[in-house]
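Why do we bother with holo predictions? Because pocket geometry can differ from the apo form. Keep that in mind while you read this record for iron/sulfur cluster.
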Amino acid sequence: MTDVSIDVRHVTRVEGHGNIAINVQDGEITRLELAIVESPRFFESFLRGRMYHEVPHITCRICGICSVGHTTTSVKAVEAALGITPSEQTVLLRKLILYGEELQSHFLHLYFLAVPDFLGVGSVIPLARTNPDVVKRALRMKKLANDICGAVGGRHIHPIAIHVGGVTHLPRDEELTGLKRRLEDCRTDLAETVGLFATLKPPDLRRDTEYMALKDAGGEYAFYDGDIVSTRDPTPTPVARYRERVIESVVRHSAAKHCRSPQSETYAVGALARFNNNHEQLHPKAKEAAKALGLQPPCDNPFHNNTAQLVESVHCVDASIELIDELLRRGLRLEPLVKPQRYGEIGAGAAEVPRGVLFHEFGIDRQGRVESANLIIPTGQNLANIEADMRAMVPKLIDSELSKGEIKLQLEMLVRAYDPCISCATHLLDIEWQGEGT
Amino acid sequence: MKPRIAIFSLTGCEGCSLAILELEDQLLDLLGAVEIVNFREGMTEKAWDIDIGFVDGAVSTPEDEREAKRFREACKTLVAIGSCACLGGINTLKNHQARDDYRRYVYGERAEWFPTQPARPLSSVVKVDYELPGCPMIKEEFLQFVKDVLAGRPFKLPDTAVCVECKKRGNVCLYEQGICCLGPVTRAGCNAICPSFGSKCEGCRGIVDREALLVAGVNLREQYDIPLEQVLADFRLFGAYQEGDLP
Ligand code: SF4
Ligand code: SF4
Ligand code: SF4
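The structure, written out:
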């Protein structure tokens, strides 16, 4: 193997700024870094001193793509600190908007960020000319997901109506029935998407990996609620004790912190992690889709995170239809926000957002102001694991007959498979080749 | 020739760039009318001779500052999109804390590894031709902007306050519930989306003008006993009011 030096500055088609730097000397990897060069954001610092009810409005601004996820996780953490139990109706609405966001983010990722790689184009834009039906389908599905978020939260990016203690707006029955009809129609689009993805060949990479996710004791496929489990330690740990399962550290080349678990130096979260831990709770239609796509648990090929996203999309469509039926059956009533029961405590919250489990923890002082904040973002949890995958991939890639352009593409595809959200974790990747041996 | 468009991001959540992709019904027409030549989040290809560059995010690191200058050089017209780029946005919350304090709180002993500076709007570093405020930017306003520019028409932001749109929508005013809403002094254009969903306006589109602020300040104090300082403090959330003397 020759000496190689790879330097990708700003990986594209990811959310945020990140670089890949790899040096190989005499066949040894001397440096391998997925550098997160996104500007540090300091949310944990500047939340301090703000009133508890502002927290979800501030944290949703961490990320445009998963702002519903941050809102949801924040309200759960603040409510845990304040001793608030939201009403059943509130929980149903929060689940619905969260499904809307999972769908929005998965569709965006599958069609706009991942598919161009498989079809050998640089972006979805040329597809608008060559495969207009595919692009129109993608847009139709994405719009439906947006509209779910809009009906519940006012808008998808930084929802308005989701508050600590409840919601300040209700979707109208006609809106819900309209969405339900479109969700039913979406099953055809999904079936065509499954057909498309069944023909794509993800690169073959297998690496024994710990997969971490929430697990819902009630038997739902966990998105909104659950305890922490993993493929190496399936004993459930309540979210309040998340620090026992997630250990953070600061590394120099990344403005996003790295994470490990008690079992492993690196672990993965996200759609594949959820699938590996919770496939039994998937909707039967989603299980069928998994079969059609050849996805079987346990799966340790990170490229199949995309496949798992599609399986989850099938699940979320049907789960949303069931939720809407439930909401319509109960009838919606505007309720006052549940007031804080206590001040001066710390509360943690978690939710499965599109890229994996997200943790927020806030200490609220006696005046109702934030005193401490800790946010653990899915992309941050995945970074060290992506590097570990690269370590496994690079020697094979370099020994292969692939051109440097193809090697670069495979590394970028790996990063994109994780669907990293670098604004969240703090931005993404642009690869340029430098130096000798290239 | 179609105008060559770029979408860039500095420090922010990229929600404003994403808002463009959320124009699902108009996206194909838009792609037919312009040529997108540089958009890291959406495409791999890149070009640096650009007619209109849209930038979201604030300037908050030395790198952001260099990038902002590079964008300015590359783009004939430079447009700041969103509260971050127009006002500094949510990022400016850190400006009210001591730098060593906020860095240390997140990165501990390793704080100096991550350079940072007070968050600022794009216009504080380079000349900006247009601003489309909002958190996120209002996608309909973006569309209107593109249409106006393509047609060679002047583009102007609304110069009325959010209350005007709120009243048109027939909402019950939140002041009736004792909630201090920034609608009277915030620039309209969002169709009063927050009050329409039961939340107060948080001023994400910035102060409509100083005069409105003064008048509203007096009214709020006289009618609702809300001092102007409180209103200005609330405007800090999106950086619309950083510092300086009260009017
Ligand atoms: S203005 Fe708001 S939506 Fe736009 S980048 Fe900034 S935080 Fe995100
Ligand atoms: S709710 Fe706010 S925006 Fe609406 S009228 Fe009242 S003050 Fe104005
Ligand atoms: S109502 Fe106020 S906070 Fe809400 S979008 Fe409009 S200007 Fe921004």
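Residues 423-438 of chain A have pLDDT under 50 and may be disordered.
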